[in-house]
Amino acid sequence: MFTTLRQSMTWLHTWSGVTLGVILIVIFFMGALSVFDREIDRWMAPTTRLPARHASISLDALRPRIDALLADADQWRLVLPDARAPFLQLGFRSKSGPRNFAINPASGDILPDSGTLGATRFFYPFHYTLLIRAFNIGPWIVGAAAMAMLVLLTSGVLIRTGLFANFFTYRPKGPLLRASQDLHAVMGVIGLPFFFVIPLSGLVIFSAVYLPAGIDAAYPGKANVFFDEAVGAARLPKSGGPGVIGSLDAMRSSAERRWGAEAELLLVTNARDANAVIEFRRNTKDRVSHDGEPIFFDRAGQMLGQGANRPARSTLDFIWGVHLLRFEHWPLRWLYFVAGLGGCALIVTGFVIWLEKRKTKPHPTGVRFVEALLIAASVGLVFATGGFFVANRLLPQDTPSRAQWETVAFFALWAASVVHAGQRVAAGQAQGAWREQAWAVCIMAGAAPVLNWITTGDHLAKSLAQGQWAVAGVDIGLLAASFVAAMAARRLGRAGETASRVEPQNRRSAQVETDHA
Amino acid sequence: MRPEMIAADKNKIPRSRRTATPRKWAIAMRAIAAVFGGYGFVWGAVACLTLLLIAIGVPRSESVIIATLLGFPLYLFILLWAFASRSLVRVSFALIGGAAGLIGLSRVLRGLI
Amino acid sequence: MPEILLVASFAASLFGFLLLALSLPRHWRETMGERHLPSDLRTGLRIGGFSFLLASLVFAFFRDGPAFGVLLWTLLSAVSALTVAFMLAMRIKRR
């Protein structure tokens, strides 16, 4: 097909980028937001802005309330409070579908439905499913994009000449094409370890979906057995006879003594059976590895077993941990966030290079289509996200199916961005589309903290003074986004003026070029 | 890459081996062979490696994890190789044939273990 | 103490990348004028640059241990290298 390695790798880099780049931007952006998912949740669900409690709560005291909610559920899980999510989360599957409740650890009361999906149930699943769950289509698209990211990085390194001679070269004052090329190369090389490890670990996390070849070969038709064996899970068959679970507090303290760490999660299977199994997992906030070291008890509190700790499994847990960052390490959390946004910038600059190279000729339809798509996927996505925050504060708390309306607002604004970008680009005013949408981001992101102040009374000075870091952090992030968008819009305005002054000449020379060709 | 470099590369190569812009069907064939043939190849290789590891005494669940972890870098290598290789025929045969062979072999191995 | 080590790690990697950037003929020319970069100075700058990067890694290890340390160092280096690239760009703009 191609005569040299460089030619073939250039082709591969260009076209895997153009086809899957837009999806990669969305994945990187939603991933970056998911880094602060719990904090965004606190901002979006003001009823959960509870003070963090240090004393551990009695599970046995909560049992009557939990049992009343469970009714006849056979399996349930309880996430214990921590500094980032200061309440208990009860989840189970009832006859009418999955149910989730948040419980105030101080009073044992059920917190009112927050009426929002927040970040943990909107941005986070968006990151790895694109919210397309039918037939696992979304996860497969994300997997293809992750694989494309690995291909893009490797082919990018192979075609890049002067990788080290130009390691730090960035010339923002020059033409847009050269500045983008510099920035694209600098960020790609500098961020290479992060940009490589993140998609790879993401693929590994979903390997049971993407590549179940090994499971299929070693455990044909019995994937569950693999998962149990891999973690060293203890299971009991259902006896059929009824049973009542003993003291959960006793089991928890026995598990915590073994770990020397606090419990994070408890899972109950065969809940109403004499052979109930209670699994405790420790929190992993002091370590990278996502290894909960599960401990299993029967209903009387007798230990059934402890998770196995084998080398490959431990490696896998470490890879999970690197991607999921369940640890408590604020500098790293911020760096992940910045690096995630850097991933978006890397791909956007890649697109700008592709577009600029094709703009000397009269724009073919394909190029316009890609530019409109890029505008909607970058600024448009930020605009829709800002709109999600605004909708969260504007919708009255008692709106029926409030969470759905927030989602509708997000997608309606995103669709509006697509239409606007498409229409402006088709009219040959791509620069205008970029500028106007940047102003729209500025307004949305700036409005959200103000609305937060009006609706909850937690203005920035107050949340900072009270040590409400989650609320303050999200406010600051939104204000920063608004400021950056304003700067970008102003710069685009200035660049637009110079461009329009130069453009007639350019167009003439482009015409001459095509005439010659 | 800068266009003048492609030109320079082209000039070094004898006229007889120079190729024009690849035809659409050739690209489509190569992409299909790389993405789907390559996936089948990786599937077969992971299955075979899992069973071989079990055969030499590695615990079953550990064998699955080791082989699966190696599968993703292998797929990356195959995708790059499929586009770097000159011959479309070689790529198609190696990947589609290799996939069939390895998956078949894994079935045989599964019967033995 | 952890915050001091964090700042030290970042500062060391920033300085290390600055030295490495200066060891590249193009950036030496742009920042120091048109002068030629002598080869023993270049070697010195490279050794100095890599030593500071190593020091940065050591600080990160002392702060967080090997697992968190490697992650922290990788991401801090990315930020500091990008900072150096921007600093060099600003410097050219001003001249």
State the end-to-end CA separation of chain A: 25 Å
Distance between the termini of chain B: 51 Å
Largest interface: A-B, 42 and 48 residues
User: What is the radius of gyration of chain A?
Assistant: 26 Å
The fraction of residues in strands of chain A falls at 5-15%
Number of helices, counting only DSSP H or I runs of 4 residues or more of chain B: 4
Q: How many β-strand runs of chain B?
A: 0
The dominant shape of chain B is elongated
Structural class of the secondary elements of chain A? alpha+beta
Give a quick precis of the structure.
The complex is a heterotrimer of chains A (517), B (113) and C (95). By secondary structure, chain A is α+β, with helices and mostly antiparallel strands.
How would you explain this protein's 3D organization?
- Chain A is an alpha+beta fold.
- Chain A folds into 3 domains: 7-45 and 116-228 and 341-357, no CATH class; 52-114 and 233-307, no CATH class; 359-504, no CATH class.
- Chain A has 19 helices and 7 strands.
- Chain A has helices at 5-35, 37-44, 59-70, 119-129, 137-159, 176-190, 192-205, 207-210, 213-218, 223-231, 248-259, 311-324, 330-358, 365-377, 379-394, 402-426, 430-456, 460-465, 469-516; strands at residues 76-79, 88-94, 97-103, 263-269, 277-282, 295-298, 303-306.
- The longest helix of chain A is centred in the C-terminal third of the chain and has 48 residues, at 469-516.
- Chain A is globular, with a radius of gyration of 26 Å.
- Mean pLDDT of chain A is 90; it is low at 499-517.
- Chain B is mainly alpha-helical and 113 residues long.
- Chain B has one domain (23-112).
- Chain B has 4 helices and no strands.
- Chain B starts with a helix and ends with a helix.
- Chain C is mostly helical.
- The model of chain C has no long low-confidence stretch (mean pLDDT 90).
- The chains are: A alpha+beta (517), B mainly alpha (113), C mainly alpha (95).
- The A-C interface holds A 164-173, 186-187, 190-191, 193-194, 287-289, 318, 322, 327, 329, 331-332, 335-336, 338-339, 342 and C 6, 17, 20-21, 24-27, 64, 67-68, 71-72, 74-79, 81-82, 84-86, 88-89, 92-93.
